[in-house]
Amino acid sequence: MSKTWLKPLRHPRFWLAAWLAAVLTVIVVCLIPPPPLALPQGSDKVEHFLAYFLLAGSAVQLYRRGAVLAWAGIGLVLMGIGIEFAQGALTEARMADPADAVANTAGVIAGLATALSPWRDTLLRMKG
Fold first, then answer.
1. 85-110 per-position pLDDT tens digit
2. How far is CA 6 from the centre of its chain?
3. Closest CA to 100 of 45, 39, 55, 56
4. How far is Cα of residue 34 from the mean position of the Cα atoms in its chain?
């Protein structure tokens, strides 16, 4: 990945690695057996929305605006859809739920929308 795709952060490789670790964590958490929690019906949609909102919002902090940020968003949406297929095909403890993919996509859109807010360069302003 070209450094020109990233904002001029103080430690760009560290922040990129942290973001990629967060992406990997979401993938793993979505594919391992769920913890035995008694949550209200449908509350997992909030969790899906927040996870993808944070991933997309973090991408806004890392990547310059334009095509690279759009591709990050597209990648996150495709990841969310792919995880739902994987849950249905590869796990016995989970099931595919199209509503989860919708919540993931809504989270990505909301996270990318932070690029239009004053918070879009928070990490950049903290550089030094």
1. 999 898 888 889 999 999 999 999 99
2. 17
3. 45
4. 19
8 three-state secondary structure: coil
The pair of structure tokens assigned to 87 is 């849950």
Neighbours of 80 (CB within 10 A): 24
SS3 96: coil
Report how far residue 56's alpha carbon sits from residue 114's, in angstroms, rounded to the nearest whole number. 9
DSSP state of 32: S
Domain ranges within the chain, ordered by starting residue: 43-128
- Please calculate the CA angle 73-77-81 and round it to the nearest 5 degrees: 165
pTM (whole model) above 0.85:
yes
SS3 6: strand
Q: Is 33 helix (H, G, I), strand (E, B) or coil?
A: coil
Question: What is the spatial distance between Cα 63 and Cα 9, in angstroms, rounded to a whole number?
Answer: 10
For residue 120, is pLDDT > 90? yes
